[in-house]
Amino acid sequence: MIVDNALYHRGQRVPLGAEGHESLGHARVPCDPGDFQWIGVHDPTADELDQIARTFDLHPLAVEDAGDSHQRPKLERYGDTLFLVLKTLWYVDEEDAVETGEINMFVGPDFVVTVRHGQGIDLSSARRDLERRAQVLEHGPMAVLYAICDRVVDEYERVGAALEIDVDEVEASVFSPARTDDSTRIYVLKREIAEVRRAVLPLREPMRKFAMGVDERITPETATYFRDVADHLQRVAEVVDNLDMLLSTAFEAHLARISVQQNEDMRKISAGAALVVVPTLVAGVYGMNFDHMPELHWRYGYPYALLVMASMVAALWAFFKKSGWL
Amino acid sequence: MIVDNALYHRGQRVPLGAEGHESLGHARVPCDPGDFQWIGVHDPTADELDQIARTFDLHPLAVEDAGDSHQRPKLERYGDTLFLVLKTLWYVDEEDAVETGEINMFVGPDFVVTVRHGQGIDLSSARRDLERRAQVLEHGPMAVLYAICDRVVDEYERVGAALEIDVDEVEASVFSPARTDDSTRIYVLKREIAEVRRAVLPLREPMRKFAMGVDERITPETATYFRDVADHLQRVAEVVDNLDMLLSTAFEAHLARISVQQNEDMRKISAGAALVVVPTLVAGVYGMNFDHMPELHWRYGYPYALLVMASMVAALWAFFKKSGWL
Amino acid sequence: MIVDNALYHRGQRVPLGAEGHESLGHARVPCDPGDFQWIGVHDPTADELDQIARTFDLHPLAVEDAGDSHQRPKLERYGDTLFLVLKTLWYVDEEDAVETGEINMFVGPDFVVTVRHGQGIDLSSARRDLERRAQVLEHGPMAVLYAICDRVVDEYERVGAALEIDVDEVEASVFSPARTDDSTRIYVLKREIAEVRRAVLPLREPMRKFAMGVDERITPETATYFRDVADHLQRVAEVVDNLDMLLSTAFEAHLARISVQQNEDMRKISAGAALVVVPTLVAGVYGMNFDHMPELHWRYGYPYALLVMASMVAALWAFFKKSGWL
Amino acid sequence: MIVDNALYHRGQRVPLGAEGHESLGHARVPCDPGDFQWIGVHDPTADELDQIARTFDLHPLAVEDAGDSHQRPKLERYGDTLFLVLKTLWYVDEEDAVETGEINMFVGPDFVVTVRHGQGIDLSSARRDLERRAQVLEHGPMAVLYAICDRVVDEYERVGAALEIDVDEVEASVFSPARTDDSTRIYVLKREIAEVRRAVLPLREPMRKFAMGVDERITPETATYFRDVADHLQRVAEVVDNLDMLLSTAFEAHLARISVQQNEDMRKISAGAALVVVPTLVAGVYGMNFDHMPELHWRYGYPYALLVMASMVAALWAFFKKSGWL
Amino acid sequence: MIVDNALYHRGQRVPLGAEGHESLGHARVPCDPGDFQWIGVHDPTADELDQIARTFDLHPLAVEDAGDSHQRPKLERYGDTLFLVLKTLWYVDEEDAVETGEINMFVGPDFVVTVRHGQGIDLSSARRDLERRAQVLEHGPMAVLYAICDRVVDEYERVGAALEIDVDEVEASVFSPARTDDSTRIYVLKREIAEVRRAVLPLREPMRKFAMGVDERITPETATYFRDVADHLQRVAEVVDNLDMLLSTAFEAHLARISVQQNEDMRKISAGAALVVVPTLVAGVYGMNFDHMPELHWRYGYPYALLVMASMVAALWAFFKKSGWL
Question: What ipTM was reported for this prediction?
């Protein structure tokens, strides 16, 4: 589905008649130098992609990749068209889960094609924001590229911050005195961190290239902005690496605590058992059928026996309390 | 066994008389520039290989490697002949297992020799597909090289996807409340992932070299196609690395759950034991032979004793239920 | 809040009238070559930062970073202004915890702006120290940069030394015969070590660059001093790496000791149980109601039975003592 | 001990009179260009080494290394003499153990000195094989170097294959239902794999250097042969790396299985205990001495009590069978 | 404390009058080209260091480092003076412990200053040895540098060999059938190996630099000797890496054995318990008070009951023996 399609002239959206609008995306509208078209499509059909590919003369391998939503982030150059694949990430609070989508961008000398798969970042709002900043948009297609990367990476940072809260919760749970089975939660978090890492790490190289001005359309000024994006990306990478390390350590601590608790349980159980079996032995003794057992004939033999049992239980109780088994 | 043998001229298979066909593989058929022979052999005997080696003047070390089916993937150059070893992988659904085979290719200026060991990828169908795409085949031996690499790597991706499903199953099993012994399954999967990795990783370097146009017969256009193969290879590598990491984490979670379950069992057992030994103590007490035990002479002494036992059991039951031990 | 603001001429603080002082930080005071302003701000408001940015023509991206206190250490160059982000660390004895703050520095040809977030290092005292060493201050803004880096890294070394003591304590606790649950302590220490590492590691590259004289304002003599800072940084990095490794090993030893202790407990418990159940069996035997049980009619049958029980207990005790179970 | 000593001319062993033979190794026999001496010594005394060192003017540091049998594999160049240290490995079937020896080679322009320590590879047979291949031997000292490296690395591959069988056995043992203590076996195998790795890894660099023709005496043809050796070396390295990884995973699975088995044992034991303590409780009840216990006076009270016990045991049995505890 | 101080001329110690001796270390004694002073100090006071620094014009940062005994090994160049920090290691047999000291060396064109901290290597004996080898000492200050590095690294090899013996002992203990708590020993060894590694690893780079002749005073001949030192250093590094790996594996095996032993204990305990509780049940049965229990009235009822108990115990014993529980 073609979501939006516009012609930009000196950083301004050009108002077009219905007819002019129709032609966008179906023909390379004659442009002044510096003018460019920006076509945004969302979950496109093969036909829509074909049409766009023919219009802008896109390379078939890139078009094939753009139609598939399971690419890894990468930057490729086909002639004077850059092809960038980005993973979008966002955090769904209700499910404590990280969701992923994908944006593919073709950036040519006088056009930008953005192909979005799945939900996630809202490119229309990114476009509206950018349209309000004419001085940025003036820089042409590379400005659009920057604006989207910046938006995507900002979202990564929000995801990183949300994961930090999740890890804090897991940590609190692991070290709480309550008996908790945190392994599932830790596993899920590690899985999500792996997903973030797979989005973030392969993107560092393209951003670094832009920051070093790998393309002749990147001015030193624009490069500075890409360096900022690369820096944020690096920060996200370090945050999730650190979270991953903390989770591994927390998991090991979880294992240790299970062992310690089992040990405590065992001692508690044993002490409890002793409180029962020892008086049982006494009862057994006075249950013997010897002819000559003086205690049996005492007037207060029975209370005496009960007292013996009770004292034994009390003594054991005190002993186990003192040695920390109960 | 020589499976197929043909002469290609401008991307078209040349129809040859019986006699002409006979000579293929036994002599370098005089070719126009751009023409080439493609000989496919499967599990060849030493004699067959020798014959081919003599015909195309192949290096003895490469021929020795081609006769052995336990090579590691590699690219070597002997004079103007490239020698590429590929591992083929395929997933056998019935056994949930990854199987491996091997393809050795000699790519000379006017010939391609493909030597296949074991089952796996069907090179005849790859050849038929390629023969239908004359515009690709026109590029000569390097096009055959590309077509086979592409086919092999596509199969890798299918194997990767199948392993992803297997890992999902293991994960579900590990975190299911049922008591499962998943260690064998995890071990087997890790072993298979190691096999995939050994096929995939050493192939990245040759593909990268082709993508950079290491051979003068690789046109920029062909290089773009090899870059695509290298990219898919990278994706497979990342998928299996991620699966390996997930399996390790799942395994640790499995260990943690075993411990937690053992702890729960122990507490359940202890609580169960208490329900028996406590009334046994009561029975022991009333089994004592004291002369003066008033309860023994009560009319309802016996039901009273049973009631005492039952109440104790009930109280313990409630206590253990409340504290989560039962 | 602007903490201090002064003009330096040939390594000396220039006494300024109230009016002159007012102008500092609001205008580039005309300077002789070699003179420079040093403005120190602490937790600045957006307005204060804006004012300073306008005065010294700082790049908006750097200013944005300087206003945020969650940057990672980095060195960036905008035109002829260097922008350095440092993490400050200090150890709070009362809480056995490492705290972090941040210093951002803009170093231009004739000015230094230091922006401090949070507590930690006291920049005023660093300034006073430096003002006493005119021969250093003479080197201009780079001398300020060096002095602050040196001070910050000295503090890192103190933190490293404090963590070494903490790790020694954990070690002593793990290997003490007492039963301790050290996993929480180890986790917290690993978390703090990770924090130190995140402050130290990214700073090594900037220091190395200064040591190699990356900036034309760095004289060979100054470079030697930065090499010294880089060397100390390296030492801190090695110290915390080593501590991290020791903690991991100590943690594993902790796990092993828990298992060993559980084993010992189990054997102790079992031996204890045997001391009770064996005489209970004897009592059971003499509690049987057979008509013909000679012992029951012995005059000293009862003491004899008690003696049998006691001897059995003594024999078991001796046996278990000898085999190390008690 | 000097094992063999000969002069080679155009790939042929030169028959020498007794006198001529005597002089070998004690003097640089005047040679035509391309002729060379090959002296083989085994566990030499210091005197023998000194004599040889003087004759061929070997560097004292290399001679010192050659006399010591605990070197690491390395290639060094002293003037126009190459000094290569190789570890030899072989697998002793009776002990399932990898044994190591050492070969030191001095390769000069017109001589080869091979110094063997310990058992292992049989250099005499290597020499005889080589003498039969005059076309190889013609290449001079480098051909001897190649022949020995090839032989040594072939032996590495045999060791690798033997270790693969050992690992398969361990794997079968770990995953067999029998209770096995595989940790010793795994440890020993890991130790042997470490030994193989220490022989193989440092040798890769010298072989790579020969394959790239680092020495002017290496012809492109010879380089191809060394590339083959380097390739086999790489294969061995990957095989043992994979085995090491498999052993680690198998070990973890072994740990998991111990835990699972302990859990099963505990449940089996508990169920068994229940089968005894429950009827004991019943017996205890009917052992009470109440005056009014109707069952005691029933004609079939005793069989009834036994029946109650038996039914309880049967019910518990069925229950535990169903829940998988027995 | 100044330990020794001498002037060397053509590899010979120059006999000096008392007066001449006095001046050493306080003035640069006029030297012929090639002559040099060698001053050795041990745990110097600040004053002694200052005096020397002034005499030889040493850089204040290096002097500061030389006065501190907690440096990491490093090589630095200040003008034409090299500053090398070495860690000395030695093994104290009585305590099975590795001790560390430090040597700092200043190597100028006509002087060597060695500053030793702590115990360890005996530099006086190194000096005496060197004085006996005039042909080495003739090479000037670099020869002293080589001699000390060689001596220090030889000591590293002895430490490595001693640690190998310790690891063998730990290994024997872990795999002995005795129940041992080896975790403390393993921890201590790992800690010592870390110490060795911290001494060895940073020294490799300086030795490699000397071997490549980084300084113009290093002749190709001297470089060969430094290559030998670098090679020994590499060997030590590999030895301790291997020991570390073995210890980790041994530790895991230790954990596995604890689990296996606990399992065996549990089964032994359970079997033992069965031998007591089963006859207790029988005793309980015959302790019941039913009016009609024929066995009670049998003449040999009591021996019969005891026989029943004994047979049950015997049967259980046989059963548990057979199934390996006892």
Answer: 0.83
